[in-house]
Amino acid sequence: MSIKNTIFASLICAAIGVPAMYAAAADQWHFVVKNKTASNITKLQVSENNSTWGDFDVGAGIASGETATMVWSASDTSGCSQWIRAKFADGATSVPVKEDFCHDLDSPIEFSE
């Protein structure tokens, strides 16, 4: 394949790939969590009814003092209003708070002592 054909093929891939990447990002919701406690957050849990909880993947956790952006797929059929609570490395669980995950996604949900 000539250099000219290689460059042309690369440009075509970029023209198709970049819009697809943005479309995938548009299908995701995010929210921000700030850990203002002395213990690492090991788990976030969400609930629509404040009684049945589902785990939200926080990977290795959120260290004390850190802020993390969590990505939540917009294909999730859950409603906007959700209860959220944190579980900590020291065994404690935060008081659940009700959040609107469809609005103001960049203001951190703060968990403090």
Q: Which CATH architecture?
A: Sandwich
> Based on helices, strands and strand pairing, what is the structural class?
alpha+beta
CATH superfamily heading: Domain of unknown function DUF5300
Query: For the terminal residues, how far apart are their CA atoms?
Result: 63 Å
The coarse silhouette is: globular
Mean pLDDT: 79
Q: Write down the secondary-structure element order.
A: HEEEEEEE
Overall number of domains:
1
Order of strands, widest sheet: 3-2-5-6
In percent terms, what proportion of residues is strand? 35-45%
CATH-defined fold name: Immunoglobulin-like
Characterise the protein shown here.
Residues 1-25 form the signal peptide. Keywords: Signal. The structure is a single chain. This protein is of the alpha+beta class and 113 residues long. The protein has a single domain (28-112), classed as Domain of unknown function DUF5300 (Immunoglobulin-like, Sandwich), CATH 2.60.40. Helices cover 21% and strands 37% of the residues. The chain is built from one helix and seven strands, in the order H-E-E-E-E-E-E-E. It has one helix spanning 3-26, and strands at residues 28-36, 41-47, 54-56, 67-73, 81-88, 97-100, 109-112. The strands form two sheets. The protein has a four-stranded antiparallel beta sheet with strand order 3-2-5-6, with no helix packed on it. The protein has a three-stranded mixed beta sheet with strand order 4-1-7. The longest helix is centred in the first third of the chain and has 24 residues, at 3-26. The termini are far apart.
